[in-house]
Write a structure and sequence with these properties.
22% of the residues lie in helices and 14% in strands.
Length: 369
């Protein structure tokens, strides 16, 4: 028989987990950590306070610091006077530093006549002295004239091309040398009254137009541009022609210089010339042909003297004091005239309806605000 196996019993003790004890231990550990953090915070605070105290003590031992306070005063910039015309107005280019700039030029419209601002102090002695060579009695008596407003005058007489722009637009009548059926028609007429004198060339002064035709043109120019253009008054024309001088011409009294500044009988070759084509042009306000090439219509009615003439040159002298408005004043010389007719004081008259004249042109003017 096999021996019976021996059974040995082993007792193993299993530990039972005490949750309450573990909880108390965790609380104790957390409390210990909190105290450590609080102690570290307090120590850091003490160190910072000590540092601030040291800096304060050091500052007290130093001299007081002076702080300079700079007060900036506002800079007052004076306002420039605003332009008295709209920016879209071509004349606005000539308003500079609060005033109209003399001799400054602006075109009424693209391709239209160029205007120059007339300078000077806006007063002058109109007429000629009794000692002036070539004068006529209707240039007297001399009298003082002033202007309340600045004005601009076309740099040259109106050209054929500029006038025909009005014709093409329906605002003006044809000049005589283009009238249908006229014997002076530049293409079909039997005469060559105009063509032989270059009157039909695009850059010649427009001729063959009456005072009424000239008035129609400035009315058309006003409608086209939205600005008011007129014929110049007789006073405006003479003031501009003199250019601030008192001699027979703006360049003085020396007639030997006239050939360089004007087209007249001595140098014109008996014909009109392109506007602004004289050898010299030294007018202080940039105007040209004020002494020749073609005579020019102005606004005024004719008076055979300056007796009782108005002292203001802004408005044309109408029919009062013996004036005749059937006659209108012409100023400036022509390609056919003698030197005496090119003087700044020279004046003449023609019936306003007459257009059959190859000597007469015009230049527009504009009052400036």
């Amino acid at each position: 028989m096999k021996p019976k196996p021996q059974v040995v019993e082993k007792i193993v003790e299993k530990r039972v987990r005490d949750h309450a004890t573990e909880k108390r231990a965790q609380i104790a550990e957390a409390e210990s950590k909190r105290k450590d953090v609080e102690i570290a915070r307090l120590r850091a605070l003490e160190d910072k306070n000590a540092q601030l105290q040291a800096e304060l003590d050091k500052a007290r031992k130093q001299s007081p610091k002076v702080v300079e306070r700079v007060v900036k005063k506002p800079v007052v910039v004076p306002l420039q006077p605003s332009t008295p015309v709209l920016a879209s107005d071509p004349a606005s280019a000539c308003w500079k530093n609060g005033a109209w700039e003399a001799a400054c030029g602006f075109a009424a419209y693209a391709g239209g006549p160029l205007f120059r601002v007339v300078g000077g102090n806006l007063n002058f002695t109109m007429g000629s002295p009794s000692t002036e060579n070539g004068r006529y009695y209707w240039e007297a008596p001399r009298h003082q004239v002033s202007f309340q407003r600045r004005f601009a005058l076309a740099e040259t007489e109106l050209t054929v091309a500029q006038y025909l722009a009005c014709v093409d637009d329906g605002g003006c009548k044809e000049p005589e040398w283009r009238e249908a059926g006229s014997q002076h028609h530049y293409q079909t007429g039997s005469g060559n009254l105009y063509t032989s004198r270059n009157a039909h060339q695009p850059d010649s002064p427009i001729t063959g137009v009456s005072w009424d035709n000239a008035k129609a043109y400035v009315a058309w120019l006003s409608r086209k541009t939205g600005q008011t253009y007129t014929l110049p008054t007789e006073a405006q024309w003479e003031y501009a022609a003199r250019g601030g001088q008192s001699g027979r011409w703006y360049f003085g009294d020396d007639e030997s210089q006239l050939k360089d500044h004007a087209w007249y009988d001595a140098n014109s070759g008996a014909k009109l010339h392109p506007v602004g084509s004289t050898r010299l042009s030294t007018h202080p306000w940039g105007l040209r042909d004020m002494a020749g090439n073609a005579r020019e219509w102005v606004e005024d009615c004719w008076h055979d003297s300056y007796t009782n003439a108005p002292a203001s040159g802004d408005t044309a002298w109408a029919g009062a004091n013996g004036g005749s408005c059937g006659l209108r004043v012409l100023r400036g010389g022509s390609w056919e005239g003698f030197a005496r007719f090119t003087r700044a004081a020279d004046r003449y008259s023609v019936y306003s309806a007459v257009d059959r004249n190859y000597l007469v042109s015009f230049r527009p003017a504009r009052m400036l605000p």
